[in-house]
Specification:
The complex is a heterodimer of chains A (about 230) and B (about 220).
Chain A: E1 5-7, H1 10-14, E2 22-25, H2 35-44, E3 49-52, H3 62-68, E4 72-77, H4 86-93, E5 98-101, H5 104-115, E6 121-123, E7 137-140, E8 143-148, E9 153-159, E10 162-164, E11 169-170, H6 179-185, E12 186-193, E13 195-197, E14 216-219, H7 223-226
Parallel strand pairs in A: 1-14, 2-3, 2-9, 3-4, 4-5, 9-12, 10-13, 12-14
Antiparallel strand pairs in A: 6-8, 7-8, 10-11
Helix pairs in contact in A: 2-3, 3-4, 5-6
Chain B: H1 5-14, E1 21-24, E2 43-46, E3 50-56, E4 74-82, H2 85-93, E5 99-102, E6 106-108, E7 113-114, H3 130-136, E8 139-143, E9 155-156, E10 169-173, E11 177-180, E12 187-191, H4 196-203
Parallel strand pairs in B: 1-2, 1-5, 5-8, 6-9, 8-10
Antiparallel strand pairs in B: 2-3, 3-4, 6-7, 10-11, 11-12
Keywords (chain A): Transferase
Family (chain A): Belongs to the 3-oxoacid CoA-transferase subunit A family.
InterPro entries (chain A): 3-oxoacid_CoA-transf_A (IPR012792), CoA_trans_fam_I (IPR004165), CoA_transf_BS (IPR004163), NagB/RpiA_transferase-like (IPR037171)
Chain lengths: ~230, ~220
């Protein structure tokens, strides 16, 4: 791995995402969404994308627009249907996007498996349900299990709270969600943070994502990072 | 009297042992949190990455980065811990959570659960953590009205809707009765404002009924 690069804009951090790339997007609901990085992807123009994300866009956000513009060929997610997922809903009903619905825990663990170099894992989740149809099964310790395979990505876009100059990351509250596992599962990990501190500015005991997984970092004064946190951000 | 939603929640809360780690599903089960007695030492898990979840956030407490699995802003209590998604579901799947309370469209007498899809042909599917939660906790309880709005029983011999998990539910708390389900079938534990035979008639099922419950 190369050392983490620090840049000034989301566009520079994103760099070139080729057509057909698999892109992981962190976040669960509003927490941990790398809003500006996905907006940069929208502006950059890559198409025929495979997106791995818990949700399939909300309202008029950048992921929803990528889907509306037909630039997402396939999405792997656990919860596409939302009150405001109209762009996904329309694309799905029109057959313009392929959906692989993945139970949330399987999504997280399949991403983790990729980062950990595993070929997959057997899990009780989903056994006997439509989402396990056609998958290899095995009874282990008396429990029927389903084989699930890793999910790799070309690029991961995530939001953390603080980075030090060695690329180590910490997160805030439930915004951590998919960030740490996605950071390890992608060939290139792009991170937006609210704060950058010198190397040593994060206690090594509290590092959540070590810098080895982080390729580029941009500091952004993201409204969603700061809102409502008076006094909570040290 | 049959139970209201809040009374159902209070009834579920009464059966959660002090000191338990508990996950409350989205919807009806969320109400259980309002009825956990102070000082019970019960810790709430939310699968988007937190133990020690507190009540819904109000006013200045609202933080878009502190939400529950239903994406509602919440608070954290002293002693709370945050972790990533893979850890959160490992904690669940690994049997470390004592009780998970879920809503349901259908539960079978054997404990099969259907709670993620109505099977409607043009519906947009979504599963979230339902399948992981159903099989992970030591005890998975369902909290639901015993009948759908159209009067159709939701406790059934075999689920007809797409399954969430097989044999994963151990108990159903409803507005009319508390019923254990599992490998040996359904067993009526308690009725509310109704007699055991009436519950059987409504469901069209024969339930094991211990002596002592109101009989005709």
């Amino acid at each position: 791995m190369t050392r983490t690069r620090f840049v000034d804009t989301a566009v520079e951090a994103l760099g070139v995402v080729p057509d057909g790339a698999t892109v992981m997007i962190g976040g669960f609901g509003p927490a941990g969404q790398p809003v500006e990085l996905v907006a940069a992807l929208l502006a950059q123009g890559a198409t025929d994308l495979v997106v791995v994300s818990n949700n399939a866009g909300n309202g008029e956000d950048a992921l929803a627009h990528l889907i509306a513009l037909g630039r997402v060929r396939r999405i792997m997610c656990s919860f596409p249907r939302q009150a405001d997922s109209w762009h996904f809903d329309a694309a799905y009903r029109a057959g313009r996007i392929e959906l692989e619905l993945v139970p949330q825990g399987n999504l997280a663990e399949r991403i983790r498996a990729a980062g950990a170099g595993l070929g997959g894992f057997f899990t009780p989740t989903g056994y006997g349900t439509p989402l396990a149809e056609g998958k290899e099964t095995r009874v282990i310790g008396g429990v029927p299990m389903v084989l699930e395979t890793p999910i790799h990505a070309d690029v991961a876009l995530i939001k953390a709270h603080r980075a030090d100059r060695a690329g180590n990351l910490t997160y805030r509250r439930t915004a951590r969600n998919f960030g740490p596992v996605m950071a390890a599962a992608a060939r290139r990990t792009v991170v937006q943070v609210a704060e950058v501190v010198p190397a040593g500015g994060i206690d090594p005991e509290t590092v959540v994502t070590p810098g080895i997984y982080v390729d580029s970092v941009v500091r952004l004064d993201s409204a969603t990072t700061i809102a409502g946190t008076k006094g909570a951000v040290s | 009297m049959t139970l209201t939603r809040q009374e159902m929640a209070a009834r579920v809360a009464r059966d959660i042992a002090p000191g338990s780690y508990v996950n409350l599903g989205i919807g009806l089960p969320t109400l259980v949190g309002n009825h956990l007695p102070a000082g019970s030492g019960i810790t709430l898990h939310t699968e988007n990455g937190m133990l020690g979840m507190g009540p819904a956030a109000v006013g200045d407490e609202v933080d878009p980065e502190l939400i529950n699995a239903g994406k509602v802003p919440v608070t954290d209590l002293p002693g709370a811990a945050y972790f990533h998604q893979a850890d959160s579901f490992a904690m669940m799947r690994g049997g470390h959570i004592d009780v998970c309370v879920l809503g349901a469209f259908q539960v079978s007498v054997h404990g099969d659960l259907a709670n993620w899809s109505t099977g409607a042909p043009n519906a947009i599917p979504a599963v979230g953590g339902a399948m992981d939660l159903a099989v992970g906790a030591r005890d998975t309880w369902v909290m639901m009205t015993l009948l759908a709005k159209d009067g159709t029983p939701k406790l059934v011999e075999e689920c007809t809707l797409p399954l969430t998990g097989l044999g994963c539910v151990s108990r159903v708390y409803s507005d009319l009765a508390v019923i254990d389900v599992g490998p040996h079938g359904a067993r009526l534990l308690e009725t509310f404002g109704t007699m055991a035979s009436q519950v059987e008639d409504l469901l069209g099922l024969a339930l094991t009924t211990p002596a002592g419950l109101p009989q005709p």
